[in-house]
Amino acid sequence: MQSVKDHKWTWVRRIVILAMLLVIPLLLSSPRPMTARMVADSENGTKVLVLNYHKVDNMNISLSVLPEDFDRQMRYLSDHGYHTITPDDLYDSLEGQKELPENPVLITFDDGYRDNYDNAYPILRKYGFKATIFVITSFLGTQPNYITWDQAREMDANGISIQSHTVDHKSMTDLTDDQLRYELVESKKKAEQELGHPVEFMAYPTGTYNLHIAQMVKEAGYKAAFTIKYGNVDKASNIYALERVPVFHTEDTNKSFLERIRYTPIFERFGWIKS
Ligand SMILES: [Zn+2]
To answer: Which domain holds residue 26?
Structure first.
């Protein structure tokens, strides 16, 4: 029979082993040193915040951020020294050809809703902010809830980069290669004709993609593509699967917004998002 002392010793050993099992994987998954500066400067370069919006209106659905909330979020970015950048700025910095400003943020909108022009654009102009809209090219000028090509051209001339979100917004993992090529090549061509300059970035409709699709995006002549994979972009990112931080309308939209932009780098450090 075990003595009381042996029994106690067994428990101490169990606790030590358990603690080691918990701590060792955490240490292994955190290869970067834990310093306060690591958010800004890791070995993979500056971490870039890419925000992803859809609608800015009063619909009270998760895809619709209220105009007053959007205004408050832009004011927060402005007050806290964020600098808006273009997809080209991001691409050039990832290629090592350009230095980004401090606290860079790429503000993106998916789909090209009419409210982007009516509600978001005046607010962006108020703060002197750049942004990017990924448009569904067959919807422009044909669907009433989407911007027109005239509006696209006006915004494009005033700091809002217009890029491709394919022709028809079909989930790309459901398409044949011919259909994929059509969605990628024709949307690029149409936007280039309408805007009069190269269109070299795209966002995957519904965020779905795989390596084969990414390869086709590259072959279609795009420089980079954006997903809805949660996280910040840095030099470790796949250029054809760039991370974004989505902003939704929630019970407390602005609190959710702050939590998302503040905590993403910490989540990433422990490998909870990128893997
Ligand atoms: Zn979309």
So the answer is: 1-30
